[in-house]
Amino acid sequence: MVTARYTWDVDALRKGFAIHRKTQRAAKLIPLLAIAFVAWGAYESYTSEQWISGLPLIVLGFLLLFGSRPLAMWQFSRAVRRSPSYGAEMTYTFDPQQIVNSGEGHHATFTWKKLYSATVTRDGILLYTNKNLFHWIPATAFASATDIVSVQGYLQENGVRTKNA
User: Fold this and answer.
1) pTM (2 decimals)?
2) Are residues 34 and 91 both part of a single domain?
């Protein structure tokens, strides 16, 4: 049995959200869309009689390129701070049959078969209960690095689709 404990706050969850966001299709398409807007704006500026005509598209492209990640992180941080669980200690207990998640005012037990997938990194573990809903357990929540290896073994034993990042 492996136990992981951490305080549910923005600092503990930020890295997990960043890792999750990298897997999202929309987050991958935003830079491409931004580059397309910049290119379109540059083309408009070059081909029109007034160079300023493409400027709004170029500005939109740069806003998408440099503003989407900070905006997503701001929304995430705001949602975490507004959550009733903010500041509560979360405890995850892993054994070969199930995962138990408990904290202030809640207790949930689910089997490994209920997991959609998992991502294991050096910073922690993302457990997906569906394609977009995840539980982040930071590496600092575990007593030792061997505990993460044990959880990874449980994932493999139970046939959970696992990605190492």
Assistant:
1) 0.80
2) no
